[in-house]
Amino acid sequence: MTPASQQTDLIQRDRARLWHPYAPAAADLPLWEVEAAGGVRLRLRGEDGTRHEVIDAMCSWWSVIHGYRHPALDAAASGQLAKFSHVMFGGLTHAPAVELAERLVDMAPAAPGRPGLERVFLADSGSVAVEVALKLAVQFQTAAGRPRRQRFLSLRGGYHGDTFAAMGVCDPVDGMHSAFPGLLAGNVFAPRPPAASATPETVQAWASGVAELAAAHSGELAAIIVEPVLQGAGGMHAYPAECLAALRQVADRHGLLLIFDEIATGFGRTGELFAADHAGVVPDIMCVGKALTGGYLTLAAMLCTAEVAAAVSGGQAGALLHGPTFMGNPLACAVANASLGIIETGTWRIDVGRIGNSLASGLAPAMELGAVRDVRTIGAVGVIELHDAVDVTAVTAAAIRHGVWVRPFRNLVYTMPPYISTAADIAQITEGMTAAVAEVHEARLREAGGREAGGPELRGQRVPVRAGSAS
C-alpha cells in the first residue's frame, strides 16, 4: 500500500481493526481523522476528503486545558525522554514522581482543624484511581476492626469510571448495571442532589434524607463517594456546595470515609482549584486525573490523609493492595509537573472566570429554541440540555461545519473548552453549538409541528440514553 493510499484509506482501516469508546465495531462508524493539532484547534479530514479546522470545545474529554503543543509541556516531555521514559516503581523512585506528589499535596484542599491529604498513590487512569480509592476504604475499615463495611454510599446521577468497582458506584439506572447483572457490587444510592439553584430548604431536605439512608446502612458502609459540585457524565448536573458539607457531617457521624472524585472537576474547571474548595470541605480520599498532565499522557492520582495511610499500612495486609506496571511513569509525571506549574501561576482563575461569563452570555440565545429544555454554566463548563435525546452524528457534523468540535451525549450538547481559549474562540464555540442544535433539532421540531420554547410536554421526562466519558 502506498503512503498516499494509506492516508486516503485511514478511516476504513480504522473501522476494520479498531474499537472506539461507547461505539459498536461497525463498518459505518462516523469518524474524522485528526491530521494536526495546535493551540485550541484540530485539523480534521472527513471520509470524503474534506478538511475542517475546528476549535476543540471538548478539551479532548476535559484534559487538554492548556491547549495542544504547549511549549512548556513539550519541553518537559522532551527533557524526560532524554533521561529515561519509564522505570518500575516497585523499590525504585525518581524525581518527577516525588516532585509531583509534593505539588499535589501542596495544592490539595485544606481547612482549619481538618487533616490534610498527605499521601499520594499514582495510578494509570481515572477509573484506576477510583478503584484504588474504593479498595483503600475497605482496607481501612478492615484495619479499624470493621470488616463488614464493604459497601459504598453513592449518588444517583453519578459517574466514576468504567472498570468494575467504579461501575458499581455509578448511577444504577443510567450506568451499566443492567449490562452486568450479578457482577457489580450492590451499593447504596442516595437521591441526586438538588440543582445549584435550589433553596436552602430543598438542600436541607435532601441532606436529611441522605443522613437517614446512611444511618440505616452505617454498619455495612465503608465510604461515601461523590463528584463534588458537578456530576459530569451523569448529566452535567451542578448542585449546591452545601451538599458537600452535609456529606462530611454524615461521614464523620458514622465513621465513614469521604471520597471526592475530582477527576473531571479538578484543576480549576468549576471556578475553584478543586470543586471541594467551593464548600471548604476536605475529603479523606481524593481522586484526580484527566487534566493532570494537560492531556499529554494518561496519569491519575489518589490522595488520602495520613491517618488513612497509617491505618492501612498497619493492617493485616501491611500495604495498599494495588500496583500498576506503569505506576509513577516518569514521562507522565514530568509533564504533569509542567502542567501543574502552569496552574500554579494562578492565571487559570482569571481565564476560567472570563470563559464562564462568555459561555453564559453566548449560550443564552439557545433558550429561545423550542428543542432546548435548559442552558446552564458552571466555571468553564457550558451546557445546552435538549428535551429529547441528541442526534450525536448529525449535531457533531453540523458543529464541524461551524468550526467547532463537540461530542454530545444523552440529551446534552456541552463544552469544556481549554483555558487558553480567547473571547473569539468562545464566541465561535457558543454560536456553533447553538447553530448545530437549531439546524438539527429545531428543524425537526418545526417539521413535527413545533413546541413553544421551554414547553411542558417533555419537561421532567427521562431521556433513556447513556454515553460516558472515558476516565
TrEMBL record:
The keyword Cytoplasm applies. Substrate binds at W61, Y159, K290, G323, R407. It catalyses: (8S)-8-amino-7-oxononanoate + S-adenosyl-L-methionine = S-adenosyl-4-methylsulfanyl-2-oxobutanoate + (7R,8S)-7,8-diammoniononanoate. Pathway: Cofactor biosynthesis; biotin biosynthesis; 7,8-diaminononanoate from 8-amino-7-oxononanoate (SAM route): step 1/1. InterPro entries: Aminotrans_3 (IPR005814), Aminotrans_3_PPA_site (IPR049704), BioA (IPR005815), PyrdxlP-dep_Trfase (IPR015424), PyrdxlP-dep_Trfase_major (IPR015421), PyrdxlP-dep_Trfase_small (IPR015422). The keyword 4Fe-4S does not apply. GO terms for biological process: biotin biosynthetic process. Residues 448-471 are annotated as: Disordered. The modification N6-(pyridoxal phosphate)lysine is found at K290. It is found in: Cytoplasm. One of its GO terms (cellular component) is cytoplasm. One of its GO terms (molecular function) is pyridoxal phosphate binding. NCBIfam families: bioA, PRK05964.1. Belongs to the class-III pyridoxal-phosphate-dependent aminotransferase family. BioA subfamily. HAMAP family: BioA. Catalyzes the transfer of the alpha-amino group from S-adenosyl-L-methionine (SAM) to 7-keto-8-aminopelargonic acid (KAPA) to form 7,8-diaminopelargonic acid (DAPA). It is the only aminotransferase known to utilize SAM as an amino donor. Homodimer. This is Adenosylmethionine-8-amino-7-oxononanoate aminotransferase. It comes from Arthrobacter globiformis (strain ATCC 8010 / DSM 20124 / JCM 1332 / NBRC 12137 / NCIMB 8907 / NRRL B-2979 / 168).
